[in-house]
């Protein structure tokens, strides 16, 4: 166990002890010493009753910040346990764009219940944010920005900024609009502060505006922010009406999400599987079912590919004259499928480890995924093998070997990244080649071991 994990465990034990002894004041003082992310990690590892007790004593702003960063399952779970007044106070302090992202994942009746607790202005902003597609610029923008009229003086603009800064995501740039709320310019805080009080904003602003349309793909916003090194980018509609801004922290979130999505596609699984596994309070059965649904289509595709390799090998059967030479044909498909499911499990585990702490129960869950996917694939290869060689002994050897290899492949694919993480070695660098080599060796041993046992009983 590394020093960080040891400290986290000691902190968790300390928090549980304070809760058990009802030392509320000491607990609150302790929590104020830690970052919101650290507190969320503690909450994840507490049982339900202690979760609620800890969350209830947190300062409102801290509780809101934690919910800003959480998933919809944790959000729903926590809010369902709080009284209406406490719930409303926390919601009032939350970032509206983060709240909209979470509400978008809830059922309509749950969403309406939350929105009804907001004040009229916030409720309207959240409803507007919920209109936009998740993958659009509007889907990641916030309405927490400062816009000033082009006819204002610098003095008036500074006063307006002071009055409204508390609700803004950033105050480094002010967005200049005309009387119809059309975006006409942008002004930095620095330029505003050093200007004369009677200077007119229109004379100070820059008309060279980098903006993105509200219905454009969010990746366009990412490209512009990266290209022009922006802190935030304004979002406008097709009539150039200012609708919101996208801040650099939201851009970073998008970059991470897109990278994760590409990684999962590369591994032949889905981001939905990752989301299910990373959610708190999710039934293990749901995790296994989600993994099964995401992986089985691609595993069947690779199974077909392996069988094609078998057909190619069969064309060289003249090399050895043996009744059971066809067993050699199936080596690629049996070892290959173990490697395929191992790669999927490894990719998912590496990505999950970068966002949360997994324990070795995950290896058993992957084993269950291997059982279900292995049964389906073994059934398919069994039918294909019988059609191909018409020998029930070979069918039995290939099917059983494939099932066992897929179970072991899934478990090793999950175990090796976690083992390296425990050793403070980057699992993303070492895992893939070690898993591939391990499963090739293990797959061959299992296949020929089962072959030997089966044939010895026949002979």
UniProtKB/TrEMBL annotation:
Record Pfam families? CBS, MgtE, MgtE_N
Protein's UniProt keywords contain Isomerase: no
Q: Which residues cross the membrane?
A: 296-316, 328-351, 363-388, 394-416, 428-450
Report the GO molecular function annotations.
magnesium ion transmembrane transporter activity; metal ion binding
Q: How does it sit in the membrane?
A: Multi-pass membrane protein
Keywords from the UniProt entry: CBS domain, Cell membrane, Magnesium, Membrane, Metal-binding, Transmembrane, Transmembrane helix, Transport
* CC annotations in GO: plasma membrane
Signal peptide extent: none
**Where does this chain mainly localize?**
membrane
Q: Where is the CBS domain?
A: 141-204, 205-261
Task: Write out the annotated subcellular location.
Answer: Cell membrane; Membrane
Q: Which family does it belong to?
A: Belongs to the SLC41A transporter family.
Subunit: Homodimer.
Task: Summarize the protein's role.
Answer: Acts as a magnesium transporter.
Q: What is this protein called?
A: Magnesium transporter MgtE
| Organism encoding this protein | Paraclostridium bifermentans ATCC 638 = DSM 14991
Query: What taxonomic ancestry is recorded?
Result: Bacteria, Bacillati, Bacillota, Clostridia, Peptostreptococcales
């Amino acid at each position: 166990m590394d020093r960080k994990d040891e400290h986290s465990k000691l902190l968790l034990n300390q928090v549980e002890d304070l809760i058990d002894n009802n030392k509320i004041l000491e607990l609150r003082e302790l929590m104020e010493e830690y970052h919101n992310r650290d507190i969320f990690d503690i909450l994840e590892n507490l049982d339900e009753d202690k979760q609620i007790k800890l969350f209830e004593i947190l300062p409102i702003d801290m509780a809101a910040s934690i919910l800003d960063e959480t998933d919809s399952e944790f959000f729903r779970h926590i809010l369902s346990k709080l009284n209406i007044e406490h719930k409303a106070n926390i919601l009032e302090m939350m970032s509206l764009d983060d709240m909209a992202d979470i509400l978008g994942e809830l059922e309509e009746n749950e969403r309406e219940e939350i929105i009804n607790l907001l004040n009229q202005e916030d409720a309207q902003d959240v409803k507007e944010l919920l209109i936009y597609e998740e993958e659009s610029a509007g889907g990641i923008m916030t309405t927490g920005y400062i816009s000033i009229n082009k006819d204002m003086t610098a003095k008036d603009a500074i006063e307006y900024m002071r009055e409204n800064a508390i609700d803004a995501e950033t105050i480094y740039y002010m967005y200049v609009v005309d009387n119809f709320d059309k975006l006409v310019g942008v002004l930095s805080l620095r330029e505003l502060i050093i200007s004369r009080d009677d200077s007119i904003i229109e004379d100070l602003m820059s008309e060279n505006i980098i903006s993105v349309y509200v219905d454009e793909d969010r990746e366009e916003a990412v490209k512009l922010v990266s290209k022009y090194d922006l802190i935030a980018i304004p979002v406008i509609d097709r009539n150039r009406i200012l609708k919101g801004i996208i801040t650099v922290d939201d851009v970073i979130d998008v970059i991470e999400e897109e990278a994760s999505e590409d990684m999962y596609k590369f591994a032949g699984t889905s981001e939905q599987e990752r989301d299910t596994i990373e959610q708190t309070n999710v039934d293990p059965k749901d995790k296994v079912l989600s993994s099964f649904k995401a992986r089985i289509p691609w595993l069947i595709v690779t199974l077909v590919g392996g069988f094609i390799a078998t057909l190619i090998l069969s064309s060289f059967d003249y090399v050895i004259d043996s009744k059971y030479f066809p067993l050699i044909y199936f080596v690629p498909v049996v070892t290959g499928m173990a490697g395929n499911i191992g790669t999927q499990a490894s990719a998912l585990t590496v990505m999950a480890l970068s966002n949360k702490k997994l324990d070795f129960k995950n290896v058993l869950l992957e084993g269950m995924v291997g059982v279900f996917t292995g049964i389906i694939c073994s059934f398919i290869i069994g039918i294909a093998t019988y059609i191909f060689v018409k020998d029930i002994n070979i069918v039995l050897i290939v099917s059983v070997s494939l099932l066992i290899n897929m179970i072991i492949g899934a478990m090793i694919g999950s175990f090796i990244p976690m083992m390296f993480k425990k050793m403070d070695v980057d699992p993303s660098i070492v895992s893939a080649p070690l898993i591939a080599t391990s499963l090739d060796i293990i797959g061959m041993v299992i296949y020929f071991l089962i072959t030997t046992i089966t044939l010895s009983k026949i002979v």
